[in-house]
């Protein structure tokens, strides 16, 4: 499990299962980045989000 805490936002927690720690970490980081991009896009379009 990987958790990211953004200022003034709820934490983002993701999990990933893979055959190696490196693969699981890379997959989890991709998920966190995608979530952050989604949140950033919403806040950009809706300033009160």
Describe this structure in words.
- By secondary structure, this protein is an alpha+beta fold.
- The chain has one domain (2-45).
- 51% of the residues lie in helices and 12% in strands.
- It has 1 helix and 2 strands.
- The longest helix has 25 residues, at 21-45.
Comma- or semicolon-separated keywords:
49 residues; two-stranded antiparallel ribbon; 51% helix; alpha+beta; 2 strands; 12% strand
Q: What is the approximate shape? A: elongated
Number of strands: 2
Radius of gyration: 13 Å
Terminal Cα separation, in Å? 26 Å
How many discrete structural domains? 1
Tell me the β content: 5-15%
Number of separate helices: 1
Order of helices and strands: EEH
Biggest β-sheet: strands ordered side by side in the sheet: 1-2
Poorly predicted ranges: none
- Proportion of residues in helical segments: 40-55%
Which structural class do the helices and strands define? alpha+beta
Mean pLDDT: 89
Largest sheet: 2 strands, antiparallel
Topology record:
Layout: E1 2-4, E2 12-14, H1 21-45
Antiparallel strand pairs: 1-2
Quick overview of this protein structure:
This protein is α+β, with helices and mostly antiparallel strands and 49 residues long. The protein has one domain (2-45).
